[in-house]
Amino acid sequence: MNISIQNLTKIYNNGHHALKSINIEIENGMFGLLGANGAGKSTLMRILVSLMKPSSGKVLVNGMDLMKNRQSIRALTGYLPQDFSAFPKLKTWEFLDYSARLGGLKSKQARLSAIDEMLEEVGLYEVRERYANKLSGGMKRRLGIAQALIGEPKIIIVDEPTTGLDPDERIRFRNLLSKISGRDVIIILSTHIVGDISSSCHHMALLKNGNVVYNGSPHDLVGQAKGKVWRIEASHEQFDEVNVNFNVISTIPSTKGWEIDVVADTVNGYTANLIDPNLEHAYVYYMEHKQEQPEII
Length: 297
Ligand code: ADP
Known about the structure:
By secondary structure, the protein is an alpha/beta fold. The chain is built from ten helices and 14 strands. β9 and β10 form a beta hairpin.
């Protein structure tokens, strides 16, 4: 599979530029879309699942224009929206049956075995006869995941998937996606949680105010922050001043005062050592230091 996003722009009716001529190439595997709230992630997701039209630009899926082949590409796509909460009055298994039919699984036999398998995968088999709207919050989230994955979609788009999941469920969900990502599928995972990306994605884009400010591997992004992350040994008196002067990532009490990890080009005047950056450091460094593309008016 291949998705090519070309000069994609979205201007909402109120004049807000949510996407500013973005370009991204996505191949098989898990692709992470990272950005703060309001960066434009959901806007891009909604365009990719044909719920919204872009203002200009195009999206090609295996060379096919998305806008001209909306139905056939939609049938290949599983989608978990950010605000997945409205359920028709159906039992849990019936809801998945409905999703599987929408995804094009015609044989009843095939659907029933796919449903059982998926209910087991997301831990909802025991409550398959319960009405979907009567499930707990975490279970509804898992049912959302199940409806996005059933029917073996070729493109899986999940918007803030781990919100509302407890730590165990988060790990289980990541493992489920990793298992699927070995196949001929594209999984696009949109999140503002750096940990969701670092543990699972080989490729990623960073969105900031509707611009792609980074597009590449998490590993290379981390590499760019090398030499920029410092552990400052601060006395109690220096604590406030360090917090004012630097981008602080973490603060740990130490025998002499505080060990404060900061992202900065230099930390002249302080006792400090360089430390190995991780993706969270790199994200902060990139968001603070890299120039955005000029605004398109
Ligand atoms: P994210 O998913 O990264 O949080 P969104 O794509 O939801 O970002 O939003 C991007 C920007 O577009 C935000 O500034 C948001 O307020 C704005 N926006 C989203 N939907 C609309 C809309 N229907 N009309 C006007 N502005 C919108």
